[in-house]
Amino acid sequence: MRRTARGVLLRNWTGASTVPSHGLYPHQWSWDSAFIAIGLRHLSVLRAQRELETLFTAQWEDGRVPHIVFNPAVPLGAYFPSPDFWRSSSAGAAAGAPAATETSGIVQPPVHALAAWLVHRADPETSRRRGFLRRLYPRLAAWHRYLTDRRDLGGGGLVAAVHPWEPGMDNSPCWDRPLARIEPAAPDTFRRADLDHGAAEDRPTDLDYGRYVRLATEYRDARYRDAEAPHSFAVEDPGINALLIASEHALASIAAEAGPPAAADGHRERAARLTAALLERLWDAEAGQFLCRDLRSAGSGLVPERSAAGLLPLIVPGLPDDVVTALLRTATGRHFGLGSADVRLVPSYDLCGEAFNAKRYWRGPAWFNVNWLLERGLRQYGREARADALRTAILSAADSSSLAEYVDPHTGRGRGARDFSWTAALALDLLTSTGPPAQTPDREPALVHTRET
């Protein structure tokens, strides 16, 4: 399995970064690259560093890290929305989009500081020699400032997503109510390229896509300026905010290692404020998990849908004991089935929910990055036996599904793309943590075809 995972990462490497898959996702994706770097560190620390460095060369001057960095060699029709839709270099000029690199205008969850810290720890000597953290720290700090300063649309201290693609769980049933207000773009104004590579029953519907296009068009036409954009969709998601908190803790470690030493305390204080806001605004004791908050709705704004994003705060250090206990009870109960005989991996959405669908993208299938994060959270809170069992289940499902993009949570059958990069990377990370190293970093000729510096 190590050889298979290594082969996937080698084949999907483009020379500067890694595509999630050559067919369905032929560009560089933001949170994919963070997860990929976590696995790459076991094969080539230099390549893992370069993965993150390449992504951050496309960072905008306002601090945002775009969710896609486009490869100009890929034909426009290979992926939609393509660079000529986003028009980042022109429409995003006022927000500081790069002039020479085309990107999208929205973002994805901030896993990057956590990834950078793990990559550094894999080989601190090489990291220090190359100035990896020293060069990346200001960019990571600017990225977090963008999220906390420009995206606190609710005024309660949490980051808001302005498009369903931003939390990474694109067509989650959590977005159904907020999206119901959005008038979809006309079907003849765009052509979906994703259906050329994936079964329609696995992918978001045409109605969903029409609404995605409408929201992205509104943001682009506002020139990606958050203070002026209408943000018809604005949701505080527990997954994004939990990952930001975990990355703030990582950024404190990075600052202590390579940034202004005094900045470390500032990052820890910000993590504490974010944690308090997460508990105050998104914790639902009756549900026993965190819920999303729709900032454009009347009433409380909490969305009464259970997604795996509501369990991801297990990666946040220092949660109250009663919250951790409730999260574990929910994760192992009938809604998510962790550890039960009927569920291979934790699904992306409530097993008992009316909108559950074991095949369709984020409406039920299990994803490897979500389960990797939950395994990490279980271990952080001392649930070693459950973490070990989940790790075994992740590796089994990755192996039997040919490193699929996602799987049916009941059967483990692979769905979506195969030979998926973050599945390979995270499987490799879990494999390496259970046995001898896959190899000595940067010393296997079969891995590195060209010299890396």
UniProtKB/TrEMBL annotation:
Gene3D superfamilies referenced in this protein's UniProt entry, alphabetically: 1.50.10.10
Domain Mannosylglycerate hydrolase MGH1-like glycoside hydrolase, residue spans: 25-423
InterPro entries: 6-hairpin_glycosidase_sf, 6hp_glycosidase-like_sf, Glycoside_hydrolase_63, MGH1-like_GH
Region (Disordered): 433-453
Keywords: Glycosidase, Hydrolase
Compositional bias (Basic and acidic residues): 441-453
Family as reported in the entry's similarity comment: Belongs to the glycosyl hydrolase 63 family.
Record-given protein name: Mannosylglycerate hydrolase MGH1-like glycoside hydrolase domain-containing protein
